[in-house]
Specification:
Layout lengths: L3 E5 L3 H13 L3 E5 L2 H5 L9 E5 L7 H11 L5 E5 L4 H9 L4 E4 L4 H30 L2 H5 L5 H13 L6 E4 L6 H10 L8 E5 L5 H10 L4 E5 L6 H13 L4 E6 L3 H6 L5 H8 L2 E3 L10 H16 L8 H8 L6 H13 L4 H5 L5 H19 L4 H7 L4 H11 L10
Parallel strand pairs: 1-2, 1-3, 3-4, 4-5, 6-9, 6-10, 7-8, 8-9
Length: 410
């Protein structure tokens, strides 16, 4: 999170006192004695927040606030005044100030307000970077989400292996998105215009393998959970690789193949052939900083699917998510996002505290809400979509306290 604070005040003594207070609290003050001196520092890329006096000669704090709104409407500005009168506070907030403090500031109040502003700025810039990646980036940037060092390394590794013709092993924990990474590798390869065919490895026969290779001719064949191949199919796959066909193999595995080789249950020759181009997907527990980015994305997607407006996500909720281990990784985070959008408590998914009837009631309520969302709050259309008699539908709405008008989007 950013530690930069632009302090604008014409009173040199007060300006330096504020700067000292910020430095003592591990922040990075940048001082300016006027709007003119501060102006060139105010850009959409400025990663910090602004703390400005209102009453200054020439261009005052309100002028600075208006200027900031024109440059970057999401850049937090906290205004200071010695008067502390209500009309000025109302004016400041109505014109877009993030906060309003009376001089001399109580240090605890100042730091608390700056902390909220810094969090807001951090999320804004994080979302902008994320959106830019989605809009302008390559498939790795558009489809592999996260802003952590581990996510950057994953994208870099994908970009490195994709242009080659060699077979690839994509390994990661359950629910981490192995098939998606495999698809990105295909999309970034010279074979991107040819088919991408995927299949589970379990139960495959030699005839199935041959058929899949023909379907993926010129493109990529993704075999998920490669450890499930029979011994005979492992030899067949190895022979196919060594023949150098026109189809590229991308294998996926949540199992520890090295351990399986040591145990004698997976062929060493095939393993070492695949291991040469290995892409490892980190678990969410290894990159908790990605959880807020991913959760906001999944909430937006779930709300769009349900046809309802995405609910606000509090910092406390994100912090609670980051404190969890997420053994199911991205897949379980997606499920949590869907429950969050539909207003279902997390306990429902675990089923530890609620009985079957209560769990079923929660699911039924979520289905009713989702149907209303998709039908823009039109109860009759939602009832028809759920194949319920209208009276039954309305009885259920009454039972759960659901109002159709709450799901109308205008």
């Amino acid at each position: 999170m950013t530690r930069k604070v632009l302090v604008v005040d014409d009173d040199a003594a007060l300006r330096e006192a504020l700067a000292q207070t910020l430095e003592l609290n591990d922040l990075e003050p940048i001082t300016a004695g006027s709007f003119v001196a501060a102006k060139d520092l105010i850009t959409p890329e400025f990663e910090g927040v602004i703390l400005s006096d209102i009453r200054m000669p020439g261009r005052d704090g309100f002028h600075l606030l208006d200027y900031v709104r024109g440059i970057d409407d999401d850049l937090p500005v906290i205004l200071l005044t010695g008067e502390g009168d209500i009309p000025m506070a109302v004016k400041a907030m109505s014109r877009g100030a993030f906060g309003f403090l009376e001089k001399p500031c109580v240090t605890a109040d100042l730091l608390a307000t700056l902390q909220r502003a810094r969090k807001t700025r951090h999320l804004v810039l994080e979302n902008r970077d994320f959106k830019q990646q989605l809009e302008e980036g390559d498939p790795a940037a558009r489809m592999l989400f996260g802003t952590s060092r581990q996510s950057d390394e994953l994208r870099a590794r994908v970009r490195a292996v994709a242009p080659t013709t060699a077979e690839v092993l994509v390994a990661g924990p359950a629910g981490s998105g192995i098939s998606k990474v495999a698809e990105v590798i295909h999309l970034m390869s010279p074979r991107a215009q040819a088919p991408f065919v995927k299949s589970p490895s379990a139960g495959l026969s030699a005839a199935d393998l041959q058929d899949l290779c023909q379907q993926a001719a010129g493109g990529s064949l993704f075999l998920d959970e490669i450890s499930a191949l029979s011994e005979a199919l492992q030899y067949a796959v190895l022979e196919w690789i060594e023949q150098g066909g026109e189809t590229r193999l991308i294998a996926g595995s949540t199992a520890d193949l090295a351990a399986l080789v040591a145990a004698g249950s997976f062929g060493a020759d095939l393993y070492y052939r695949l291991e040469g181009m290995r892409v490892r997907i980190p678990s969410l527990a290894e990159r908790p900083g990605d959880i807020p980015v991913l959760f906001r994305l999944y909430v937006a997607q779930a709300a769009e699917q349900a046809g309802i407006e995405a609910p606000q996500i509090s910092q406390e909720h994100l912090a609670a998510l980051m404190a969890q281990d997420w053994p199911g990784n991205a897949r379980s985070l997606m499920s949590a996002a869907m429950r969050f959008v539909l207003g279902m408590p997390d306990e429902v998914s675990g089923g530890t505290d609620l009985g079957l009837a209560e769990q079923m009631a929660q699911v039924e309520r979520s289905l009713l809400i989702a149907a209303l969302g998709r039908q823009n709050g039109r109860a009759a259309a939602a009832a028809e979509a759920l194949k319920l008699p209208r009276k039954t539908f309305y009885d259920k709405l009454a039972r759960y306290g659901i109002r159709p008008e709450d799901y109308r989007r205008g």
